[in-house]
Each structure stands twice: as structure tokens, then as C-alpha cells.
Amino acid sequence: MSQYLIKNWEPDDPAFWKARGAAIANRNLWISIPALMLAFAVWSLWSVTVVNLDKGGFHFTKNQLFWLTALPALSGATLRIFYSFLVPIFGGRRFTAVSTATLLIPALGMGFALRDPSTTYSTLLILALLCGFGGANFSSSMANISFFFPKARKGLATGLNAGIGNLGVSVVQFVTPIVIATAVFGSLTGDGQTFVAQGVEQNIWLQNAGFVWVPFIAVAAVAAWFGMNDLADAKASFAEQAVIFKRKHNWFMCWLYVGTFGSFIGFSAGFALLTKAQFPSINPTAYAFLGPLAGALTRPVGGWISDHLGGARVTLWTFIAMIAAVFGVISFMPDAGGAGNFTGFLAMFIVLFMLTGIGNGSTFRMIPVIFLTEHQRRVNGLDSAAQRQAQHEASKESAAVLGFAGAIGAYGGFLIPKTFGTSLDLTGSAIPALHAFIAFYVTCVALTWFFYARRNASMPC
Questions:
Q1: Cα-based angle 429, 430, 432 (whole degrees, multiple of 5)
Q2: Do the beta carbons of residue 114 and residue 49 sit within 8 Å?
Q3: 280 exposed, middle or buried (CB, 10 Å; 0-12, 13-18, 19+)?
Q4: What is the pLDDT of residue 1?
Q5: Per-residue model confidence as pLDDT tens digits over 99-145
Q6: Taking the mean position of all CA atoms in its chain, how far away is CA 20?
Q7: Which of 77, 303, 324, 386 could make an S-S bridge to 410, C-beta 3.0–4.6 Å?
């Protein structure tokens, strides 16, 4: 497949970029985006499916349901650790195609399992873990796209890839209630399940939640195989990439990304169930897609603003605003003194989602700048060959950090819904969980300010 391998790639050379680099990079980006969107859709399938399980004859406790929403994030985050290093080893085109094709496993598995209410809870847990394939794809996708674009455009390019890709969370929460409410595939996917609502017998087709994504996944995998490229310059062994574990800024950025992306995917996974628990009269599926939609749309904005103002400044003020937004959520939640206000609760959560999207873009903009600056400092005063080598090494390290930070950040998708579930079990309220999130965001503010945003910071970015 040598026709897909590009042996010389110099995106920071203006002449190269104008002549052929921009066209190739953009083609790879626009094939990568829908593949990543489908990955996020599969990753988030359980976040909206669980609120309808009782209608299909599946009856579990609140904590069991929160486990189903949390496990995809746990497995996805863990797999991301490995995926983040695989693009430079196998090539972006090949790995994107294969990793997209693996999404067929959980999609088909859920389709067949949800047809039968006697399917065991342990089987559903396994399928939830397999949905982690979708979450894992993010790290490989972001690492791959970062190689294609010059420094000045990395923020926008990775923001578009991740931001539009993140729309998969909103899309799945919008589409799933529609496709499970109708026999969109006729008899092809099996009979529906019957339930009674307000004395009226109705049907639901839970299996459509999985089956509806199968043809789109197949098309995206084929498009990646025949339409994307592998970059010879991006090749690197695991040992070459493992140097990031010695870089303190790798670990700092992982912590910050737990606060931004971890919040986005964690709130996405837990919002529908949290709404159902706190406001039982509200249909959560009618609103669940709004928050992830807001967060996905603001992610490219965060990258674009950071390209102009600096990622550290944007990240700092984003975390400060997130603290205020969580206090806003708490003020509208039910407590001993009242029933709460759903409109205010929803509005503040949408603001919180928007801020997580901006923070996702700004933190990912910080990473390439940090590692390029580090390498340039090491070769300060040396010849042009040393400068080019430093830039090349910085590109490889920043790509590895983008993937690894994405892996660690994704654990927020497990921690947030599980913290909500534990808080509700122990106290009957989700407010203690939100207080814990505020405390974590305070540490993110302090870290960002001290190392990156204050005057005379050691690594301004």
C-alpha cells in the first residue's frame, strides 16, 4: 500500500503547505472527523439506552444503571493508553480504518442482546466494556491529525477533529430515542418489546440503539482505508514515545484534561440518569443531547481562541467559570427545602458543558506549544539542523502526549457517573458529588496559574 504512504512531510514549510500539504491534511481531517463521531456515538450508547431499559423489560437498581453508563468510560480510558502510542507504530490510515471497524463489535452485540429481556446483567456489563472501543479511538485519532498540520493550525485542526467528533455524544442521545421508538428496520432486526405507560400499551425496539450505527461504521472504515494516508515522518517506536513519562508537563496536562474532557464525557454519561433521579417527572431523553451538543460546538472555539490568546489564559478562566457554573447547578437542585428548578438546572448544565468544550480546545492547544518550547530551549544557539530535529522530536512527543492525556482524561467519564451514583446511594443527594468536583477544579486553577498562566511562569503557553 505504498501509494498511501507519504515519505516527506513538512507542514511548517509554507511552500510545501501551499503546494500539496494543505489539501492532503484537510482530506485526512475530513475523513477522520465522521469516523471519530461514530466512535463517540458508540462510546456513549449506554448513557441514553439505560433510561429506557425498564420499558424493554430490563429491571435494575439505580447503582447498576450508573455502572452501565460508567464502564464504557473505564474501558475506553484504559484502551486509550495503548491506542495513543499505536499510530506512529502502525500508521494513521491503517489504524483509523481498523479501529473504526472494531466499533461493529459492540454495535452488533448490543443490537442482538437488547432484543431479549432475559439477557443477563453480566452480559450487558461486558457489552458496556466493549463500547470502550469507541472511546479509545479518540487518542489515536488526535495523535494522527496532529501530525498533519503546522503549529499555527494545530489548535483549530485538533479542535475540529475533537469538537465535531464529540458531536457523536449529542447525536447518539438525540437519535437513539427516535430509533428505539419506531420499527425503522421493519422485521429485519426482530420484534419490539411491549410496555404500559399511563394505561396505554406501547412498543419499543431497544435493539435499534445498536443496529442503527452498523452501516455508517462500515462506510467510515472503508473511507479511512482508501482515503487517508500514513506519514513516514510520524513513525516512532514505543520506546521513542515513552520519553513522555519523564516529562512533568505530560502529567500536569493529564490532570487538567481530566478537568476539561473528563468533565465533558462524565457529565454526558451521567446527565440523563441524574436528571431522572433528581426530577422524576422530566423525560431526560428530551434534553440529554443539549449539553453534549453545546460542549462539542464550543471545542473548536476553544482551540481557535487559544491560537490567538494563548491556551493557558483560556484554560485558567475556563476552570474559574466552571466552578461558578457548578455552584449554579447546585442552586437549582432539589434539597430538603424545595423541589428544585429544572429549567435553571438544565441551563446551568448547558453552560457547564460549553465551558468543558472550550477547556478541551484550550488544553489541547497548550500541549504542542509546551513541548515545542521545551525542545527549542534545549537547542538554543545550535545550527539549523539541530533546530529542525528539535521540531521533529517535539511533534512526536506532543502527539504522544495528546493521546496519553486523552486517555487519562477519559477516566472522568467513569468517575463522574460513579460519584453521582455513590453520592445518591450514601446521602440521597448528588450535591456532595458536585462539591467534590468544585474542589478538583480549584486544583486545576492553581496548577494552570502557577506553571503556565502567571507572569514569569516557567512554561508560558
A1: 95
A2: yes
A3: exposed
A4: 47
A5: 999 999 999 999 999 999 999 999 999 999 999 999 889 878 887 88
A6: 31
A7: 77
